[in-house]
Amino acid sequence: MGRNILIFCGIDWAEHTHDVALVDGSGQLLAKRHITDDAAGYKILLDLLAEYGDTEENPIPVAIETSRGLLVAVLRTGKRQVFAINPMAAARYRDRHSVSRKKSDPGDALVLANILRTDMHAHRTLPNDSDLGRAIAVLARAQQDALWNRQQISNQLRSLLREYYPAALAAFEPWRNGLCRPEARELLKTAPTPTRAARLTRTQLEAALKRAGRKRGIATETERLRDVFRSDWAHQPPLVENALGKQMLALLLQLEAACTATDNLAEAVEQAFPQHPDADLILSFPGLGVQLGARVLAEIGDDRTRFADARGLKAYAGASPITRASGKKSSITRRWVKNDRLNHAGYLWAFAAITASPGAKAHYRRRRDEHGDWHAAAQRNLFNRMIGQLYYCLQHRKLFDENTAFPTVLATAA
């Protein structure tokens, strides 16, 4: 069949099956299929597209409500434009076609196809990132999720220890990362209750520290831990204390698994991120290390056509403010609809840049002193400026330069 009219495809995605609809430029339904989520179903879909004129040079655009999965990977081969439509936006479009609020999977596929037919210019295609960039995105997001999971389990363990084992919290307080350290986990396994901890000998404490990998200051730490564990602490009844100790050991197993996953994924990011062509450029910015730089790259991608200008990237990151005006009322507030991962990375980036860059520190102080910003607002303003600089450097393949980035601020500070 020749491509004398435009064809648009909509796919209602589900876990096991998908509904497909094809419409022409006038909105006429040309074909619909119900396919399975496997290689056979994907072949039926590709054959259907080819039947209606899909070619490598002139592929049919596709709208779907997800940006991940094997189906999306199959559709993204070649030059095909794939649009990931927000489900909330698709629900609003559905009301344009039916006032009865009826809903069906084939009907949703038809709605998605018509979204492209009428408003394709208002939606973005999935970015054309490189395979290496997408692999780094997978690893960086997984490492971030593992880090958040580790912190969540650590908080649960800390809350439990407060109920019956405050001596452990006092013993681990001087250590950085506290309960996540190998020494803390090894001591908790050795003595899951305060009663058993008070009976630990110097030899047992030293052995536990050595098993955890500690090399220096073992004798000093042994004496400190022994004094803390043998101090006068309140106790739960023996039966309750033993039961809480078993609950703590179960949480400790989860924490150890989370710590191992976090470390392994961080190592994988350290191996993959330096191989990317943009790595040196991103790492030239103050406050960005390998892990944080990989997170930034994961969210902005390496498709240079993804954002029309720096303003688009700033809005996507939630760094730029948003204006709400109606009649005589007008307000400027922070953005709530944004990429949360990139916004979180930007918060850490700006916080580290204040120490690493004299220009960033001067800019932050100026926002606090002259404009009266609170800490979070000043830090967000700094992130807004630096991510704009990152956009420029990525577009023009230039490394970060302190004097170029903050010329006025540095001159005023001097």
Strand order of the largest sheet: 3-2-1-4-5
Low-confidence stretches: none
| Separation, N- and C-terminal Cα atoms | 71 Å
In DSSP terms, counting alpha (H) and pi (I) runs of 4 or more, how many helices? 19
Count of DSSP E strands? 7
- Categorize the overall geometry: globular
> Structural class of the helix and strand makeup?
alpha/beta
Task: Walk me through the structure.
With 414 residues, the chain is an alpha/beta fold. 59% of the residues lie in helices and 9% in strands. The protein has 19 helices and seven strands. β2 and β3 form a beta hairpin. The strands form two sheets. It has a five-stranded mixed sheet with strand order 3-2-1-4-5. It has a two-stranded antiparallel sheet with strand order 6-7. It is globular, with a radius of gyration of 28 Å. α13 (290-300) packs antiparallel against α15 and α14 packs across α17. The chain has helices spanning 39-51, 70-75, 87-97, 105-119, 131-164, 166-172, 182-190, 194-198, 202-211, 218-229, 238-272, 279-283, 290-300, 310-317, 340-356, 358-369, 375-396, 402-405, 407-413; strands at residues 7-12, 17-24, 29-36, 62-64, 82-84, 322-326, 329-333.
